[in-house]
Amino acid sequence: MVSGIGCSSRAPGYVDFNTLHTTHGRALPFATGIKLAKPEMTVIVVTGDGDATAIGGNHLIHAARRNLDLTVVLFNNSTYGMTSGQYSPTTPTGAFGTTAPYGNAEQPFDICNLAEAAGATYVARGTTYHAKVLPNLIEKAISNKGFSLVETITQCPIYFGRMNKIGNSVEMMKWQKEHAVTKKQAETMSPEELADKFIIGELCHKTKPDYCELYDRIIEKAQASIK
Amino acid sequence: MSGNIKLMQGNEACAEGAIKAGCRFFAGYPITPSSEVAEILARRLPQVGGKFIQMEDEIASMAAVCGASLAGVKSMTATSGPGFSLKQENLGYASFTEIPCVVVNVMRGGPSTGSPTSPAQGDVMQARWGTHGDHPIIVLSCSSVKDMYELTIRSFNLSERFRVPVILLSDEIVAHMRERVDVGALESLEIFNRVKPACPPEEYQPYEASPETDVPPMANFGEGYRYHITGLTHDESGFTTQKPHKVAELHERLHRKIENHKDEIIETRNYYLDDAQIAVFAYGSTARSALRAVREARNRGIKAGLIQPVTIWPFPDDLVHQVASQVDAFIVPEMNLGMMVREVERAAHGQAEVIGQSLVTWELFTPAQVLSKIEEVFNWITSGSTSDSKPSRTSGALAAATE
Ligand SMILES: Cc1ncc(C[n+]2csc(CCOP(=O)(O)OP(=O)(O)O)c2C)c(N)n1
């Protein structure tokens, strides 16, 4: 399990695998090296919204584009938790952060759309409230042979919850419950009804050759060329 | 076992040396004048079952190299000035978490985009101190195509032996010129591989080292040894600590593993030093012009000698200190505004005069330029070395004009 830097990126310290806590934003390229060196290893990347979509945004789209067989579990708490609540690329417009004292002037990424557009072959969204669904999504992501991303909406009561008056952890999870809709539910809802909602569940699952498979063909060609 | 003589380009020699050393992974981003290393390895690595990847930038390249090495595959990247700057954060990660890897930096004129197709020597301090924090590192310097083959292998050996990133410095001229290399004669070069733990996985402490070596045995990822690595300050277990004595222990060990093994790491080429009155200290391609100048000076009756450090970091303090007790002056020609000259001054410790010679036209030093400096210094010494007439550090334009 590989992570970058942030509260979310401390997760590898709590599991009993080969765990690698790297530099801010760079978990994916470290994981890329591991996967290419030992394709038989299952490589999971744990990251945050800041880690994966700000400083590491370029690595995210390129790892997805290559369809490298990695599974990203991205904790999206809409803020930079570790550094105390600055706005992030997923902070909603108007929301408050320690660097957005008048409300955020920027527009947020939809991480799942971003990953799918960049080439990911499995994309899903879950929440910490829907805790029973999440392991299924992660399991499916790991079993997909290609680039998989599970965006997980998480709560940061200390900063985001407090500054935006959403409340404590329980209230933030209640907010998740009230704003999450399934794909099926979304189909019957109007754009106005969907405006402040987000869709959970599996959002994209397709089959494309993964990078290692394509590179194995390169090795075959290269070796044939010197025979 | 000679007889396999090849006409090779410097960057090609580097790529072939890497394959010989057992490198099976390269991650990089194109940049002049280092791109041929990537291009050749893109072709060569899959032929030997290795992998090449062109990453989205140099930050990612350095990260991928670290990841591949942790999974047990000897790994490298190659770059130049702007790219070398981008590699610094993860170079620090490799140094602190003790990941063996090789970073080739083919120096070009800097700072910034500078002069992409010209040689320079402005990165010698960045190679030592480019990443933040006090950290161990080894830096070697190439002056020929043969060096680019041989020192690439030596870089891998040192990185595996000491679990440290090794930076191999070259410059645009050495990397792009073609020379003969007797590859057959280099066939027997020894290849060193990282020491693996002898204990069972349950007992493995990833950062526990014996006091003799100070280098912890390294279990590769995916071989049954489960452990944690972090760029946070850590103890033997690999997990983070803030206990002051543990913090200090780690830093002291990382320092010792290089400092106590300088004899093994430092390599210099010494010419005509025995009776030298003036010693030239020159590295990289500058050393070649300097050697020619020293020989010419001897023909003219000046007892000149040359120290060519192959290892520039750690710096050969002891040798410079000892030579300083015997010569009247050092001359330090370099393609920058005076970087290693300060190290020579420090190590000479006031025992001899130290005079710099800078060339910042991003052209090679000619032997004539170095020779004229040797003569100038010689005349100054023989006329009594008065401080008001001390030769100054010649600036680039001046050196070119005096040609
Ligand atoms: C190069 C670099 N820049 C900045 C930081 C400081 N920093 C540490 S964590 C972090 C933000 C983490 O945010 P996110 O990824 O959303 O994780 P969270 O803490 O919210 O889980 C920042 C900016 C750093 N460690 N390294």
Describe the structure.
The complex is a heterodimer of chains A (227) and B (403). Chain A has one domain (2-226): Rossmann fold (3-Layer(aba) Sandwich). Chain A is built from 10 helices and 10 strands. Chain A has helices at residues 27-37, 49-55, 57-66, 111-118, 134-143, 157-163, 169-179, 183-187, 191-194, 211-225; strands at residues 2-3, 19-21, 44-48, 71-76, 79-80, 86-87, 122-127, 148-153, 180-182, 198-205. In chain A, the strands form 2 sheets. Chain A has an 8-stranded mixed β-sheet, with helices on both faces. In chain A, helix 5 (134-143) links the parallel strand 7 (122-127) and strand 8. In chain A, helix 2 crosses helix 3 (57-66) and helix 3 crosses helix 4. The longest helix of chain A is centred in the last third of the chain and has 15 residues, at 211-225. The mean pLDDT of chain A is 97. With 403 residues, chain B is an alpha/beta fold. Helices cover 39% and strands 20% of the residues of chain B. In chain B, helix 1 runs parallel beside helix 2 and helix 1 (10-21) runs parallel beside helix 6. The A-B interface holds A 2, 12-13, 16-23, 26, 28-38, 40-41, 58-59, 62, 215, 218-219, 221-223, 225-226 and B 25, 27, 43, 46-47, 49, 51, 53, 55-57, 59-61, 63-73, 75, 89-90, 93, 221-222, 225-232, 239-240. The structure holds thiamine diphosphate (TPP). The site of thiamine diphosphate has 17 residues of chain A, from helix 2 and strand 5. Thiamine diphosphate (TPP) is lined by residues 5-8, 24, 48-51, 75, 77, 79-83, 88 of chain A.
